[in-house]
Amino acid sequence: MKNTVILVCFAMTLGNAFCQDAKYLCIPDKKTGFAYSNGNWSVASFKDDEKYIVHQVGNKFTFNYFGSEAKDAFSCNRLSGYDLIECNSILRVLLDLDIKKFQIYFPLGYLARDGYGGKFSPTITIGKCSKI
Description:
Blueprint lengths: L1 H17 L2 E17 L2 E6 L6 E6 L2 E6 L8 E5 L6 E4 L3 E5 L4 E6 L16 E9 L1
Antiparallel strand pairs: 1-2, 1-3, 1-9, 3-4, 4-5, 5-6, 6-7, 7-8, 8-9
């Protein structure tokens, strides 16, 4: 009987770890990159009013714009060998939920072809997340 109680407690502990459900609100601190103007690229600062939501269910993570529907979220994976979460879509996102920081890299713009140069600006955003 004692072994059964220990086994049940152990199973409940594992279940909580694997069924963890958490949400984080991520807010940018700074955003910088390059802007195209008059045929030239130059360093620029950008205002970022976006907020982001990271949703964790067990070992699965999603990343989304705050206020967007869950179906629009993109999935994330743990980076092998690192304690980081990586999300890829048109954005490249790295999250460290232990220290509650993130960075977003938007790669489009500089490598654009067919007259799209300057339509997009490559940027990097850094910020902090808090559990909600």
